[in-house]
């Protein structure tokens, strides 16, 4: 099958003047993307050592995308590091990755990375060498590593997930087959490039000759700017976390009348709640809404399901769908044995887009990557079960399970129940530990909405009354904390770790 970069090059040859990138009205064509990435790739081949990945430091500007493609055309993998990353994170990534260079599209912080650093001015000058022609023979291909995304890491030490050209090709092929019309027009590009959700809009759009409409962080962080820009983007396809959609749903103008071209919603990165999906279905009755699932280690996503009204009526907690054709999902118990149909087990992804492992981290790779019936596989740490219709049902994280008074409770299950309460906009449950590190209380952080109560006590009693209909008594939170907003990670997910720290201190 054709190389991914050659597919993007072909769009430039066929439709050179087509817009590929729209950054708040500043537009760039496919010809510009090809010409600039060809030129920079030639320079990189002459300047860089032949081995080693390359850090690309920057935000969501066009030159960052150019640099990604240039690095891959020069035969290297790129490591996206967002401009909002901390100094410590940048330094740790450099220490782990041992990169050939750091290409800085923004001003680097005052830090000694002990490696070759190419600054913005020099890189932009090389991009403007319009006579350069790329050497297709050096393009990353087959099992070569295409990009490396560093996850947060549960212990604070990030892990570099290596995604090969063929891993990415598997994902793009599945996206094209599953959503054949979604990425040939205008796609929302909101997630930072250091978050693998960005890959869901980036490469499917580029290989299909579509346009990426960028919403940078400084716009999404400003409510007024966000809703000023959204209608101007004329989006056809929406890609984001559910949390970002929840932010947009606060505004009643986030609807089909104001955004008439919006036909597809694709969600990944965290669980899509029933409440969020139902609101979207009401606001955008003609749009198709898809729930997808997959970890970074299996290349963005491996399952999908369209959230129709029938699905909403049948499932209080939404399914995460059916696996793509070139992969397989198996559910294993603690002994590594397949569980019976309907039973809960750890979700293990086999084949397809499964990574070769973590960069320069053989210990962590051995712990979570394995071979299953001769194919590469990844133990996700997520729990799930299959229903009679073959839908995969997410049952939370193994590490988000707690025991309270002898009962095993899944924190995300509590979140789901809370999200079904009419007075709750968004919620997250966290445990409080005693001095023996046993769970003593379950605390719910709640962003409330649509209520007339004059005290938090009255609001709490009303929420508990509704919860009685959807959750077991032992799951009922002991305490409710009301907040204006739940904290989010840089990737737009609810920051449960921060809430845990607030409840339990640094212990």
UniProtKB/TrEMBL annotation:
<feature type="domain" description="AMP-binding enzyme C-terminal">
    <location>
        <begin position="414"/>
        <end position="493"/>
    </location>
</feature>
<dbReference type="InterPro" id="IPR000873">
    <property type="entry name" value="AMP-dep_synth/lig_dom"/>
</dbReference>
<feature type="binding site">
    <location>
        <begin position="394"/>
        <end position="397"/>
    </location>
    <ligand>
        <name>ATP</name>
    </ligand>
</feature>
<keyword id="KW-0963">Cytoplasm</keyword>
<dbReference type="InterPro" id="IPR044507">
    <property type="entry name" value="DltA-like"/>
</dbReference>
<feature type="domain" description="AMP-dependent synthetase/ligase">
    <location>
        <begin position="9"/>
        <end position="359"/>
    </location>
</feature>
<feature type="binding site">
    <location>
        <position position="300"/>
    </location>
    <ligand>
        <name>D-alanine</name>
    </ligand>
</feature>
<feature type="binding site">
    <location>
        <begin position="291"/>
        <end position="296"/>
    </location>
    <ligand>
        <name>ATP</name>
    </ligand>
</feature>
<comment type="function">
    <text>Catalyzes the first step in the D-alanylation of lipoteichoic acid (LTA), the activation of D-alanine and its transfer onto the D-alanyl carrier protein (Dcp) DltC. In an ATP-dependent two-step reaction, forms a high energy D-alanyl-AMP intermediate, followed by transfer of the D-alanyl residue as a thiol ester to the phosphopantheinyl prosthetic group of the Dcp. D-alanylation of LTA plays an important role in modulating the properties of the cell wall in Gram-positive bacteria, influencing the net charge of the cell wall.</text>
</comment>
<keyword id="KW-0547">Nucleotide-binding</keyword>
<dbReference type="Pfam" id="PF00501">
    <property type="entry name" value="AMP-binding"/>
</dbReference>
<protein>
    <recommendedName>
        <fullName>D-alanine--D-alanyl carrier protein ligase</fullName>
        <ecNumber>6.2.1.54</ecNumber>
    </recommendedName>
</protein>
<dbReference type="InterPro" id="IPR010071">
    <property type="entry name" value="AA_adenyl_dom"/>
</dbReference>
<keyword id="KW-0436">Ligase</keyword>
<feature type="binding site">
    <location>
        <begin position="151"/>
        <end position="152"/>
    </location>
    <ligand>
        <name>ATP</name>
    </ligand>
</feature>
<dbReference type="InterPro" id="IPR020845">
    <property type="entry name" value="AMP-binding_CS"/>
</dbReference>
<feature type="binding site">
    <location>
        <position position="382"/>
    </location>
    <ligand>
        <name>ATP</name>
    </ligand>
</feature>
<feature type="binding site">
    <location>
        <position position="493"/>
    </location>
    <ligand>
        <name>D-alanine</name>
    </ligand>
</feature>
<dbReference type="InterPro" id="IPR042099">
    <property type="entry name" value="ANL_N_sf"/>
</dbReference>
<comment type="pathway">
    <text>Cell wall biogenesis; lipoteichoic acid biosynthesis.</text>
</comment>
<keyword id="KW-0067">ATP-binding</keyword>
<dbReference type="InterPro" id="IPR025110">
    <property type="entry name" value="AMP-bd_C"/>
</dbReference>
<comment type="similarity">
    <text>Belongs to the ATP-dependent AMP-binding enzyme family. DltA subfamily.</text>
</comment>
<dbReference type="InterPro" id="IPR045851">
    <property type="entry name" value="AMP-bd_C_sf"/>
</dbReference>
<dbReference type="GO" id="GO:0016874">
    <property type="term" value="F:ligase activity"/>
</dbReference>
<dbReference type="InterPro" id="IPR010072">
    <property type="entry name" value="DltA"/>
</dbReference>
<feature type="binding site">
    <location>
        <position position="493"/>
    </location>
    <ligand>
        <name>ATP</name>
    </ligand>
</feature>
<dbReference type="Pfam" id="PF13193">
    <property type="entry name" value="AMP-binding_C"/>
</dbReference>
<feature type="binding site">
    <location>
        <position position="196"/>
    </location>
    <ligand>
        <name>D-alanine</name>
    </ligand>
</feature>
């Amino acid at each position: 099958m054709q190389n991914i970069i050659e597919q993007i090059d072909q769009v430039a040859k066929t439709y050179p003047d087509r817009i590929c990138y729209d950054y708040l009205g500043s537009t760039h064509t496919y010809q510009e993307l090809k010409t600039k990435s060809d030129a920079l790739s030639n320079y990189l081949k002459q300047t860089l050592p032949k081995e080693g990945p390359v850090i690309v430091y920057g935000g969501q500007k066009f030159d960052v995308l150019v640099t990604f493609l240039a690095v891959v055309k020069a035969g290297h993998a790129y490591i996206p590091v967002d401009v909002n990353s901390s100094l410590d994170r940048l330094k740790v990534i450099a220490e782990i990755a041992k990169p050939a260079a750091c290409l800085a599209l923004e001003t680097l912080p005052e830090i000694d990375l002990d490696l070759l650093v190419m600054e913005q001015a020099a890189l932009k000058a090389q991009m403007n060498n319009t006579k350069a022609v790329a050497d297709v023979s050096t393009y990353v291909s087959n099992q070569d590593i295409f990009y490396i995304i560093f996850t947060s890491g549960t212990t604070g030490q990030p892990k570099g997930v290596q995604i090969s050209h063929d891993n990415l090709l598997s994902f793009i092929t599945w996206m094209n087959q599953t959503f054949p019309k979604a990425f040939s027009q205008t796609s929302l590009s909101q997630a930072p490039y250091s978050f693998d959700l960005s890959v869901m809009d980036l490469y499917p759009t580029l290989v299909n000759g579509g346009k990426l409409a960028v919403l940078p962080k400084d716009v999404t962080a400003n409510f007024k700017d966000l809703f000023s820009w959204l209608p101007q983007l004329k989006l056809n396809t929406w890609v984001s976390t559910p949390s970002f959609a929840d932010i947009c749903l606060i505004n009643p103008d986030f609807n089909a009348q104001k955004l008439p071209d919006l036909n597809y919603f694709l969600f990944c990165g965290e669980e899509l709640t029933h409440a969020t999906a139902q609101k979207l279905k009401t606001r955008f009755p003609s749009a198709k809404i898809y729930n997808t699932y997959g970890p970074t280690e299996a290349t963005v996503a491996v399952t999908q399901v369209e959230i129709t009204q029938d699905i909403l009526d049948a499932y209080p907690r939404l399914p995460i769908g059916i696996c793509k054709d070139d992969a397989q999902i198996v559910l294993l118990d603690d002994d590594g044995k397949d569980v019976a149909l309907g039973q809960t087990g750890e979700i293990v992804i086999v084949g397809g887009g499964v990574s070769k492992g973590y960069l320069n981290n053989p210990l962590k790779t051995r712990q979570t990557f394995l071979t299953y019936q001769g194919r590469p596989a990844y133990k996700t740490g997520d729990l799930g079960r299959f229903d009679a219709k073959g839908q995969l049902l997410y049952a939370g994280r193994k590490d988000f399970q707690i025991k309270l008074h002898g009962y095993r409770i899944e924190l995300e299950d509590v979140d789901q129940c809370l999200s079904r309460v009419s007075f709750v906009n968004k919620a997250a449950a966290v445990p409080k530990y005693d001095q023996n590190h046993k769970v003593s209380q379950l605390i719910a952080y709640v962003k409330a909405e649509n209520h007339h109560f004059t005290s938090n006590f009255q609001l709490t009693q009303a929420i508990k009354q509704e919860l009685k209909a959807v959750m077991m008594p032992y799951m009922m939170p002991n305490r409710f904390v009301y907040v204006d907003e739940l904290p989010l990670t840089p990737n737009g997910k609810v920051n449960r770790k921060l809430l845990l720290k607030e409840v339990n201190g640094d212990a």
